[in-house]
Amino acid sequence: MSDRLVLDYNNMLSPRLGGRGIDPARLEALADRFAQAHAEVARRRDAGEIGFFQLPYQSEVREQVGNFANGLGQAFGTAVVLGIGGSALGAVALREALVKPHWNELDDDARDYFPRLYVLDNVDPSTLGPFLDRIDLGQALFNVISKSGSTAETMSQFLVVRDRLGRTFDDDGYRRHLVFTTDPEKGVLRRIARDEQIATLPIPPNVGGRFSVLSAVGLLPAALIGIDIDALLAGARDMDERCSSTQLRENPAGLFAVLQYLADTEQRAPMHVMMSYSDRLHGVADWFRQLWAESLGKEKNRAGETVNVGPTPLKAMGATDQHSQVQLYMEGPYDKTITFLTVDQRGEDLEVPKAYEDMPELAYLGGHTMGELLSAERQATARALAHRGRMNMTLRLPRVDAGGIGQLLMMLQIATVYAGELYGVDPLDQPGVELGKQLTYGLMGRPGYQAEAGEAPDPHWMSE
Amino acid sequence: MSDRLVLDYNNMLSPRLGGRGIDPARLEALADRFAQAHAEVARRRDAGEIGFFQLPYQSEVREQVGNFANGLGQAFGTAVVLGIGGSALGAVALREALVKPHWNELDDDARDYFPRLYVLDNVDPSTLGPFLDRIDLGQALFNVISKSGSTAETMSQFLVVRDRLGRTFDDDGYRRHLVFTTDPEKGVLRRIARDEQIATLPIPPNVGGRFSVLSAVGLLPAALIGIDIDALLAGARDMDERCSSTQLRENPAGLFAVLQYLADTEQRAPMHVMMSYSDRLHGVADWFRQLWAESLGKEKNRAGETVNVGPTPLKAMGATDQHSQVQLYMEGPYDKTITFLTVDQRGEDLEVPKAYEDMPELAYLGGHTMGELLSAERQATARALAHRGRMNMTLRLPRVDAGGIGQLLMMLQIATVYAGELYGVDPLDQPGVELGKQLTYGLMGRPGYQAEAGEAPDPHWMSE
Question: What separation, in Å, do the N-terminal and C-terminal C-alpha atoms of chain B show?
Fold first, then answer.
């Protein structure tokens, strides 16, 4: 396929960085370890432990999603996702990338009569209450997304929404405003769906929240607003095929994982910035933030030893953050890598008119396009970083379209499981959030849970 | 005053962290250095080098802003800031915190007939073009904000907007849709304003972009949408007064600065997360990200020695990021501090109805409010982090109102200049962005500039 995503990693390597950065020989030296990681990932995939690899090939779910979106889904002017974390970030990334900007502010005509799509990923009452008061319930479809069915934030939202629907519509009527995306067999949401005959879509048991964007979790919201999910899945399949290569230099996910791993463990650069030079790719950077952090940030390695590892992902926006973060990236500690996201063909562009030609501060801008300015700023920032010995690389999409986004999302997911192998941790679990959940249950008075972590009383250190 | 912001830093200190974290004795030991930093900051303030301290006391600008907002400003349904970095982040933070959520989606009545406020802080043509096509130019006021008047992104936007206004209105008519916020004497914007008789507001020469939120830069957008700028400035003055104390334990900005400095330099925790448990404070966390990064990330100290210092600020959202970042915060390297932003009195709240009481996964939620859940989640996360030896502190606002936000913004600005003293760097400059600007000029063909940083040619490392 010709419309391939490209990873340009020249600026990660010492020849461009005046001796700083990763020695190309180290990259070559990791080729064997990468091949082992690749083999172990393939083994876990074949054993059915890593489910996301199969999602682009599952035509049954794709049809269920399409049928729902093209059928009942067409009846609503507002789609609302109730979900958090992996149940929210994928839908936001797809909406930001693949429909018109400021989608929810456009009128019906500008949206081609597809619904608005809101993703409620928090429980702040000062946002949630006014939002529910404002929308027309009769026009609203709520997609409740929780694999376990017991996520406190999402289920609280559900209880509020369920109550309002029950008070607004009759016993039969409220059901058509709900669709659940949850485990195919287990959990409270599944039980309620059975008891009350509510439409559902499945999340495969071997697909964790942060790897679920290409399951019904991401596909249904995307399909509802008219995104071409077939092209999205085709892009993901293309990337999967590319990543079948065990040759590190041919495998973009492998290169990304190995470079970031070497930067963290050998170059003391544990902060991995993803800086998008397209407004439309900012949601992807936010989605990646969960993927990378929750998968790799682990206390124990797979042998059970305490290691406390994990790089920290950051998101940034170009050109905006040149006026916020780039001073630090240029001059602060050598503790970061920057991955630029960029687009070769932007589609629509906007010309800067020639004017004030007697003022040199403005004259050079006239006649260029905004796209050219953005591109020049990215190139200039990358070169300046390299000149200062700062590691950076660029992920170039041919276009921001469903096929390109499918490639990008799949590449980053595959890179994450490779990186799990390199760090020696399980990228699929998240044991560290359990204590917080228990304490929340305790504070909320759920029977059988305590609210204290058991810390000692101590002096009162407060500013007042 | 009783409505004071409180910093609770118990969980930064070793007694709560099982021996990890900062020894209270180290904090006491820094008291003298803090007093020196305080004195040096006071000296620079008195010498007129640090201008932001005076902003809450400048009644003249406050009146100019008020007159404009209450006069001509009332005539518009849409206010648009053209600005980037420090010219944008303050306005966004104030809008997010101090008017109703989803402001720009509300109708005129719900906005009490104050205008929508858009902040265009990037030059992506796929966002900018459709935005300008969509709005009603006749109803739009453009506030062009650039201290130098030569910021490439902002001035490109201005050229596009100026052209459209010129084509839509006659020679006199276009002017009333523009107001410039810029240097009182110098720069291109000032010159254009003089030549074309366009309204302006000043940015004092000794106030840098990231410290300008309480100048006309932040105040005009805030006043246009009905924010009580008098209360905002009063809150800032209250904080300034509190921070007149040279006693570390009485000075909240001093405590914040010293704790973060010790965490970075003695506890190897260079990542400073600001995690808001209020949707309304997320914009403040983003504004702080520029303040902390650009002020402290420096190659040289004030003696001219190469030091490459600076902590990295991150923003996070509670409870949302419990499902994205908290796994890493709990189990990854001990390389972070978490500062929670929270609110004592949320105002409006939302009750979770009792339902499904036979299901323990849901039953405990009913009867609580969303605000209680959010509060429980924050407390549980803070306790769990402390239990795992992870440094965290909590900034508690009494309410999200103009007075509280004024305190918070002022505290963080003062903390930043204290921290500059502790690190030994100048918090007011940003020399590291210069090379990128020069290279951008070169790539855009501005006479006299080169596009290359001078790196050597090298092999082509690409994934294709």
Answer: 64
